[in-house]
């Protein structure tokens, strides 16, 4: 019953109930005969002509496998992580609920061992080598085999090669010019001549001596190399006020210190004579 893919055993991915091959999904395999040669048709009584079968699937499209399978009574609560197996039945057929088959599914990448195969026997005294007893269900014995499995290796999609690439040959490759010689990388760049501002040229020797630090950085300030330009608000020619300002500047007379003292000289003579006046006395 086990399915192999190039010698690799694939795990079970699902187990279900089905009425017949016509109701069994195409990716499932129906178990019609037990290991001891009996019909694996689960019937509620001998008078019933129709029954149901167990079937299993090994389709890994969903990315999940069966990590365990159990049989429980209808009075038992289903354990956490388990679920009842699905049913693909004829509307006139019903599955007995006295005993239920439950399974636990897990992602392929999360488990290393899984259910690899299941088998049925009609006689409980018969033992199957390398299989584990699961339980009795409606006159049959369910067995399972667990073990490590190998996931199918994904097929590599062949890459299409254009006709132009196929036309290339090794002879054409040899005609190509030789590669350029390697050049060392990360070499220090050649020193460029420094641009000194006019301010640095105007420094006196005494200023150079007072500057501390490395000799290569002496007399260098943050203003060296910064261009200077006049703010447009003070550009008289740009604003058209040059002639007006020149006429006003010509009317200004520059006074000397002596002119200022003669113009604003004040001796306080009036205040001094007033202070010397004698207050008249009142005779009694």
Give the strand line-up of the largest sheet.
4-5-3-8
- How confident overall, as mean pLDDT? 75
Q: What is the 3D shape? A: elongated
The main sheet comes to: 4 strands, mixed
- The tally of helices reads 8
Classification by helices and strands: alpha+beta
Give an overview in words.
The protein is of the alpha+beta class. Helix content is 17%, strand content 23%. The protein contains eight helices and twelve strands. The strands form four sheets. The protein has a four-stranded mixed sheet with strand order 4-5-3-8, with no helix packed on it. Strands 6-9-7 form a three-stranded antiparallel sheet, with no helix packed on it. A three-stranded antiparallel sheet has the order 10-12-11, with no helix packed on it. The longest helix is centred in the C-terminal third of the chain and has 10 residues, at 242-251. The chain is elongated, with a radius of gyration of 54 Å. 13% of the residues are buried. Residues 1-7 and 208-213 have low confidence and may be disordered.
């Amino acid at each position: 019953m086990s399915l192999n893919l190039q010698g690799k055993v694939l795990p079970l991915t699902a187990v279900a109930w089905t009425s017949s091959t016509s109701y069994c999904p195409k990716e499932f395999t129906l178990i019609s005969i037990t290991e001891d040669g009996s019909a694996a048709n689960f019937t509620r009584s001998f008078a019933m002509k129709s029954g149901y079968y167990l079937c299993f699937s090994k389709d890994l499209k969903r990315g999940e496998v069966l990590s365990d399978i159990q049989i429980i009574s209808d009075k038992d609560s289903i354990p956490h992580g388990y679920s009842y197996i699905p049913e693909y039945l004829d509307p006139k057929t019903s599955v007995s609920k006295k005993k239920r088959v439950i399974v636990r599914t897990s992602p392929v990448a999360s488990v290393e061992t899984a259910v690899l195969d299941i088998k049925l026997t009609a006689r409980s005294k018969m033992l199957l080598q390398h299989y584990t007893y699961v339980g009795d269900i409606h006159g049959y014995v369910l067995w399972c085999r667990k073990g490590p499995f190998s996931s199918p290796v994904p097929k590599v999609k062949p890459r299409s090669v254009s006709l132009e690439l196929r036309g290339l040959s090794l002879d054409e490759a040899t005609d190509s010019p030789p590669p350029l010689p390697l050049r060392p990388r990360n070499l220090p760049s050649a020193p460029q001549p420094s641009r000194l501002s006019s301010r640095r040229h105007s420094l006196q020797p005494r200023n150079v001596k007072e500057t501390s630090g490395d000799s290569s950085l002496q007399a260098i300030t943050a203003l060296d190399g910064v261009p200077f330009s006049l703010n447009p608000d003070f550009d008289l020619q740009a604003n058209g006020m040059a002639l007006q300002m020149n006429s006003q500047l010509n009317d200004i007379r520059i006074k000397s210190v002596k002119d200022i003292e003669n113009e604003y000289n004040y001796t306080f003579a009036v205040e001094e004579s007033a202070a010397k006046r004698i207050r008249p006395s009142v005779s009694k």
